[in-house]
Request: fold
Amino acid sequence: MRALRLLDWKTEPVLVEVDEPIPGPGQVVVRIGGAGACHSDLHLMHDFEAGAVPWNPPFTLGHENAGWVHALGQGVTGLDIGQPVAVYGPWGCGTCARCQLGIDPYCENVAAAPVPGGGGGLGLDGGMAEYMLVPDARHVVALPEGLDPVLAAPLTDAGLTPYHAVRRSWGKLPPGSTAVVIGVGGLGHVGIQILKATTAARVIAVDTREAALRLAEECGADLTLPSGPDSAEEIRRATGGRGADVILDFVGADPTLALGAAAARTVGDLTIVGMGGGTLPVGFFAVPYELSIQTTYWGSRPELEEVLDLGARGLVRPKASTYSLDDALTAYHKMRDGTLEGRAVIVP
Reply:
């Protein structure tokens, strides 16, 4: 079968022929219907080097995956051949306290995981191929009726990651509250939809790009603001001087972190989702009183089921363009150049 594989750090992936996977005991092979292309893949191609993470190439890209059950290993129950499924992306040890709760991204025994701190498309073979081997059936989640795998694939990360970030702040998003989304890209535009679908908050979107702000309006943002030196003041003006109750930074660079701290309300949340490499000085007078600042990574398996339900009901729908395996590099080049709107899904 054909697979898009990263053969070494600081290189672009190549399309090669590999053997079709065969499931062992407890494993599942999924016929891929869609594999999402993620900005983090660009980091794998261009920024990482040996020692940056506890695994190395070669491996097949694609950590956002959905399709149909193709083959079952011995002992697997609860799944049927041909059943539409999504693949939960982070693969932990399965036995520590975090994994028992379905929060594999925060596995506390990574040495016992299939690949430390990674998963399919992140150290092990992912879904940018005709078939994908999932090493444990617990990572395979049935799709709700009516949800196409092509639409489900980006929900496993581009949906799950912002959903987890929003969900942890539900208590601070009652009627009358305000949430700010900084960065309306592949994750941010889904984050806006999740805020509108699951909270009563007013949503303000901030981005440097006019096209991104138009996308934010399409996704339900109540107010869009071009990013600039006066953005924090404009957010405070729009909130009666109080600031935003929850700020979700999908960029994570120095300027966006500074904006988040300047625009936040006391007792608010500033959640850093983007991996832009920025830092934020924190001191007694540097941020609003009782502002909680946290980073998040991916989400839990139960949360994935909730996101898929929102997708099946049409409440959350990533804006996605589809590409064949032959054209996958085109999608990544558009992502790198900033000309990709929404999400790209590779369809083998």
Notes: The longest helix spans residues 149-167. The first strand starts at residue 2 and ends at 6.
